[in-house]
Design goal:
This protein starts with a helix and ends with a helix. The protein has two domains: 47 residues, no CATH class; 146 residues, OB fold (Dihydrolipoamide Acetyltransferase, E2P) (Beta Barrel). It is built from eight helices and twelve strands. It is of the alpha+beta class. The radius of gyration is 26 Å and the shape is flat.
Length: 229
């Protein structure tokens, strides 16, 4: 590609005739992907070679100074714990990310004669492994919404440890979020009684209350109620 062509296509050509456009660029056969094209690379380098805006150094000097002086925010970020937030009915719940094995699209659950019930739903196959599927809503004594739409938002969460894995279906997963201890509070007595002490902390996320669950207590209860009983 000569210098004239480079000047003509240097304005984000990959969005128009490249891999993010209509694939009409004649260079694609040779470079396979726009990331390998000299025009793309040259454009990237030009971003680093451009002149620094007048306020750039001043703005970043202020940001760095504020961050360095804000020790409370620094320690909060350092001590933060990652939690997975999900929805069951009208409740937002969360368990520590370290207890989660994976999150998958729901698979078929096969009930067992004389064993399956509202709490123990049955067995399901996750990547070739047969696992026990339980109803977390019944374990937590949460109301079940019979009008809950069966849409693509539902997910199965596989949690526990490599030797003790459980599967439970949730209505929606909101991803991983980090919270510092200062952002969470001890669960009120009313909440603790309602969920049989499975909620150990409460907090807020996007203006909504979240119950942070005691995952170890949940797994202990599952073992006692299903495997031992």
């Amino acid at each position: 590609m000569n210098s004239l062509e480079s000047q003509q296509f240097s304005k984000r050509c990959w969005n128009e005739i490249g891999v993010k456009g209509d694939f009409s660029c004649h260079q694609l056969k040779a470079v396979i992907h726009c990331h390998n094209c000299p025009v793309y690379c040259e454009t990237g380098r030009s971003l680093f070679n451009r002149e620094i805006p007048l306020q750039y150094l001043e703005d970043w000097t202020r940001v760095v100074a504020e961050t360095s002086n804000d020790k409370e925010k620094f320690f909060s970020a350092k001590d933060a714990i990652s939690w997975m937030i999900f929805r069951l009915g009208g409740e937002l719940l969360s368990i520590p990310v370290k207890t989660i094995q994976e999150i998958v699209v729901p698979t078929a659950v096969h009930s067992l004669p004389h064993r399956s019930n509202h709490f123990f739903l049955g067995l399901t196959n996750i990547r070739g492994e047969t696992l026990i599927c339980i109803s977390l809503a019944h374990l937590l004594s949460l109301p079940i919404d019979s009008d809950e739409p069966k849409d693509l938002l539902k997910r199965m969460i596989v949690a526990g440890n490599p030797k003790d894995r459980w599967v439970f279906l949730v209505d929606e997963v909101f991803g991983v979020h980090r919270f510092s201890p200062r952002e969470l509070k001890e669960a009120p007595v009313v909440i603790t009684k309602a969920t049989e002490t499975y909620t150990q902390l409460v907090g807020n996320w996007q203006g909504q209350k979240v119950n942070f669950l005691d995952a170890e207590l949940i797994f202990y209860t599952l073992n006692r109620k299903i495997l031992e009983g």
